Amino acid sequence: MENIVEAKNLTKRYQSCMALQQVNLTVKRGEIYGLVGANGAGKTTFLKLLAGQIFPSEGEFTLFGAHQQRAQEKQRMRTGAIIEMPGFVPQLTIEQNMEYYRRQKGIPGDRVIEDTLKTVGLWEVRKKRAKTLSLGMKQRLGLAIALMGEPELLLLDEPINGLDPSGIIEMRNLLKKLNQEKNMTIIISSHILSELEQLATVYGFLDKGRMLEQLSARQLHEKCGNYLEIVVTDVEKYIVLLEKKLQHKDYLVLADGTVRIYGLEKDAVAYSALASENGIGIRGMSLKQNSLEDYYMSITKGGRENA
Amino acid sequence: MLNYMRSEWYRITHSTAIYMFTIIMSGLTLVLNVLLYALDKSDVSFPYGTQSFSLSILASGMMTMFFAGLAVVSLLFSGDKKNGLMKNALAFGISREKMFLARCIICVVSSLCSLAVILAVYIGSAVLLLPIGVEPDAVGILLRGVGYTLPMAIAAEVLAVAFIDFMDKELIACLGWYIFIGMLPKCCALLGLKFPVWKRIAGWMPWNYLAEEVNVNMSGWSCMWETPEGAAKCLLAGGIGLILFLIMGLELCRKQEH
Fold first, then answer.
1. Which of B6, B16, B92 sits opposite A77 (nearest CB)?
2. What residue numbers bound the domain in which A242 lies?
3. Does B46 touch chain A (CB under 8 A)?
4. pTM
5. What is the DSSP string of A182-203?
6. A92–B11 CB contact, under 8 Å
7. Helices B64-77 and B170-178 meet at what angle, rounded to 10?
8. A104–B6: do the CB atoms touch at under 8 Å?
9. What is the pLDDT along chain B (258 residues), one digit of tens a residue?
10. What is the spatial distance between Cα A202 and Cα A66, in angstroms, rounded to a whole number?
């Protein structure tokens, strides 16, 4: 599969602050790449670099194979983007804003405006001035602008901010549809990890400007797997037994004394039997599935902020 | 770049800013001439109710065109950064240099259209309502003056685009513009009081020569652009200013990229 974006040692420095450090990343055609990270992790910086709004301090990236800055500018005609807040002319109506961008992108025919506005559900309110729109509608307008002309690559920075629950579902379905039917490549960052989990096919975990890990959805699912939470009367004795008798070292003792056992190789009964056979009482036990959020928290050692 | 210009032209013609500016400026000139006409009719000894006096207001203050250019740039492009229009254009593959050049062209074209209407109302109302006065060729001199000052007015507008595009705060951009257009020439003129070389340099700066070499009053008009040397100076200084400010704007674009 063709590499749409390939970053090598990409670094962005703002005076003394390192926004992005030595990031290596590959996005292939047709992928939905989810950028996961806390505030200040470098997600927006990375998207801004791809969109040509800022330039790398070190390292490089290719966009549709283009390496040079001028060549990348040409390739950006094949992209659509919403980075931070969607950009539009507040004084113009929704339809006029679309016309403004249709001309800017050099898209022939005005049929595309009707089609795109219908896609994002703004056709009925096309005569409304952009400045009077709600946050959710502004977000939809931003998406319509980005989608116009069916770009091959979509860069979306927190695109569901301000959307109501039905808007979030519509946006998710729309992005999935575009990805499946048009093979559109999407790079998306979101704070709402549960939402990202339903959409992304590949994940990149950023923390303090560093790329911690890059995983496919399948790899993530395998890594997350099941884990067992067990609450016992004597935690210290139990973990000694766990290590010695079951040779299991992949566990975590939470602050409240709960033992979380990862990488289950045996039936859950074996872990409860270990306690009961050695005179340790069991207060509770449950089998759980790791979510993207749990995984993110585990690799960033709990995270500094809510992701 | 052509697509970007087309989109910007669409935006400008579908927004009210340039129309409002043109209507207000034309309205002010019309009010001026109507007022002079009314005063002239009510008092026969009133000496200022003439075309010469009315048109002398612009002829003696051609720098007004520079400020008008700044106002147009500010009206058309301020808020573009805040509204995310520039970042979108970048994301769609338009380089900063192309964006800057396109905005300069669009701004100049809009300003020229606006200027044509304002001048038509200004001169037209003066000719229709007022007697000629001390300078029989006031209209011709004024129009030639506008023509010869135009290159520098365009240069000042290019500088305004550069500053408004690349400075975060509009007030700072306007101050920066005034430092270049008004204060720097004044400083050079002050240095010229002591050092002859600075006097020569200051003499080529539009802010200074338009103030010192244009003498328009109730006894007669003496305008520098009416002599071949003066006209050449206006054109040359304007041309140099235009090239200088274009280079400066492009340099600011490149600086933003690194």
1. B92
2. 226-289
3. no
4. 0.78
5. H--EEEEE-S-HHHHHTT-SEE
6. yes
7. 160
8. yes
9. 888 998 999 999 998 899 999 999 999 999 999 999 998 888 878 888 888 889 999 988 899 999 999 999 999 888 887 788 888 888 888 888 899 999 999 999 999 999 999 999 999 999 999 888 877 888 899 999 999 999 999 999 999 999 988 887 888 989 999 999 989 999 998 998 888 899 889 888 988 888 888 888 888 888 888 899 989 999 999 999 999 999 999 988 888 765
10. 22
Residue reference for tokens 């309110």: A125
Instruction: Please give, rounded to a whole number of angstroms, the shortest distance from the CA of B169 to a CA of chain A.
Output: 19
The residue of chain B with its CA nearest to that of A101 is: B7
Question: Which CATH number covers residue A199?
Answer: 3.40.50.300
Q: Are residues A137 and A250 in the same domain?
A: no
Counting every residue written for chain A, the total comes to 307
Q: Is A109 on the interface with B (CB under 8 A)?
A: no
Q: For B93, which of A77, A83, A90 is closest by C-beta distance?
A: A77
Please tell me the total count of domains within chain A: 2
Same domain, A142 and A83: yes
Which of A25, A19, A9, A12 has its CA nearest to residue A56? A12
Q: Closest residue of A to B10, CA-based? A: A100
The tokens describing B35, both together, are 């007022």
Q: Is A56 on the interface with B (CB under 8 A)?
A: no
**Tens-digit pLDDT profile for residues A45-54:** 999 998 888 8
